[in-house]
Design brief:
This protein is of the alpha+beta class.
Length: 515
């Protein structure tokens, strides 16, 4: 290996040809930065695998001569990389690439769950991401960045910025009837983190299990399992969580979706709300209220939060994932007084608090009225899509019973038994590129009357896409009807789904409600 490009001086230098191209720019760097550039180039060559393990490097004298740099520069680079573990050397044995270095990945993989190759995605859980108010949000970012004091960029209060907690307390009291002391509001990375925070606190207090609705969100079991708690499925009746099985279960904590039960769509009756709170008071129990889409009601004002009836027994949780976008990872937890400090202590050790700038932007957005305007905009769009879904089912699947349409971003559609059996129906839909979520994925047993119950999301699809998708589904599930996949129709935003690891035939299945 010589600077003149003639044959290398010894056979091992042949293996250095890939590295030669990397080292030449380093040698040409400015005198002040040449040593750093050489070390970086050698380190990158080892990491990338261009210098393989057990490759012998030329002597410092040879490499210095070939590169036209001082021998001391090369010696220093060898010594530094040997200290870091990239190279190994021994007296009289030369310098070699270490066997313990694993070549780095050359590219980053995107593991965000998305509905790739799906023509029509009717799975629930995703809002229309094209409705995100980019202009108003950017304006709030500029305003906040200009006025935020320097010391606000330090480690934040783990509960969240005071201005955001105050803004959320006012918002939740006004829109959801929540009794929200800003000192008991904790800003979280969505309801998923709120759930795990509560899970850790319950486990630390001696709990072993938590009751969950059946049917209900498939995510609750996995989230509580991550905190060391098991979950106990508890059945529903027409009023909400059935009190008898709850009493017999022996649990002292339960997760509910009383404003708009997921996935059935029922709102807990006033009587059942009272019975649930009586159970909590009698057993010293805790109720977690997951208000995942409580702002979206189409027939009347939204049903108020359960928490407002007894703030000391109910942990209230929510997020902006349906109203703005799940990618913001912003949510909240309103804690009872007895649990507040333990939840805050766990939040501090978990992440030291949420990003300050994002919190400040959301606070500004709420205070200046942008959040209310966004909710009204979404309300109008989602009502139109709900109507389009009902009309499409009536046209293409006559006899379908549709429920849960008064609120939320999905419906329950019970297709007549003639479209079954369910496994065949789902397989035909999947082969046509149509993604569906059967109700059984939410934990409940199959229907007793032979109908095909589906949980159909509509918020992320334009009305025209809903109509085309329903027509394509009807064609696919007719006897002998198995059309091949056509172009993907992503609706208005080509929305991502969520993947909880459960699958219907042929398609990935995102979780029903973002956490």
């Amino acid at each position: 290996m010589t600077s003149s490009g003639t044959n290398p001086r010894h056979a091992s230098a042949e293996t250095l040809a890939p590295a030669w191209e990397l080292l030449v720019p380093a040698a040409a760097a400015s005198a002040r930065g040449r040593g750093r550039a050489l070390r970086s180039a050698l380190r990158d060559a080892v990491r990338s695998g261009r210098l393989a393990a057990s490759t012998r490097l030329p002597s410092s004298r040879e490499l210095a001569a070939d590169l036209g740099v001082s021998r001391g520069l090369v010696t220093e680079a060898y010594e530094q990389l040997t200290a870091e573990g990239y190279l190994r050397s021994g007296r009289g044995a030369g310098t070699w690439v270490s066997d313990g270095v694993r070549a780095a990945e050359r590219s980053a993989r995107d593991r965000a769950p998305r509905a790739r190759g799906v023509r029509y995605d009717f799975r629930p859980g995703t809002p229309d991401l094209s409705l995100f108010p980019r202009g108003a949000w950017s304006a709030a970012q500029r305003t906040v960045s200009g006025r935020l004091p320097h010391d606000a960029l330090g480690y934040p209060d783990p509960r969240g910025l005071p201005e955001l907690r105050e803004a959320l307390a006012g918002l939740l009291a006004r829109r959801r009837g929540v009794v929200a002391d800003p000192e008991r509001v904790v800003v979280c990375s969505g309801v998923a983190q709120a759930t795990t925070l509560l899970g850790f606190v319950l486990r630390d207090g001696g709990a072993a299990s938590v009751g969950v609705e059946d049917p209900g969100s498939p995510e609750h079991a996995a989230l509580f399992a991550a905190t060391g708690l098991s979950t106990v499925p508890l059945p529903l009746d027409e009023d909400g969580l059935a009190p008898g099985p709850l009493e017999r279960s022996g649990v002292r904590a339960v997760v509910t979706t009383p404003a708009h039960q997921f996935p059935t769509g029922i709102a807990y009756s006033a009587r059942r709300r009272g019975e649930l709170l009586d159970w909590a008071r009698r057993t010293d129990g805790v109720i977690m209220e997951d208000d995942y889409d409580g702002d979206f009601r189409y027939d009347r004002e939204p049903v108020g939060a359960l928490q407002g009836l007894d703030p000391e027994r109910v942990v209230y949780t929510g997020s902006v994932s349906k109203s703005l976008a799940p990618g913001l990872r912003l949510g909240w937890l309103v804690a009872p007084a007895a649990l507040t400090e333990r939840i805050v202590a766990r939040k501090r050790t978990m992440d030291l608090g949420n990003p300050v700038l994002d919190q400040a932007v959301l606070a500004d957005f709420v205070v200046r009225g942008g959040y209310d305007r966004q909710l009204r905009r979404c309300q109008r769009a989602y009502r139109e899509r709900r109507d389009a879904m009902a009309a499409a089912l009536d046209e293409h699947f006559p006899g379908t019973a549709v429920s849960g349409i008064a609120a939320g971003l999905h419906v329950i559609a019970r297709l007549p038994a003639r479209y079954g059996p369910e496994d065949v129906f789902l397989a035909r839909a999947a082969s046509a590129g149509i993604a569906l979520r059967p109700l059984r994925d939410c934990g409940t047993a199959g229907s007793e009357d032979g109908s095909l119950p589906l949980v159909l999301g509509y918020a992320h699809l334009a009305p025209a896409s809903i109509a085309r998708g329903a027509a394509a589904l009807a064609a696919a599930v007719r006897p002998g009807g198995r059309p091949g996949p056509g172009p993907v129709d992503p609706g208005p935003a080509d929305p991502p789904g969520r993947d909880d690891g459960r699958r219907s035939p042929g398609v990935g299945a995102p979780a029903a409600a973002e956490r």
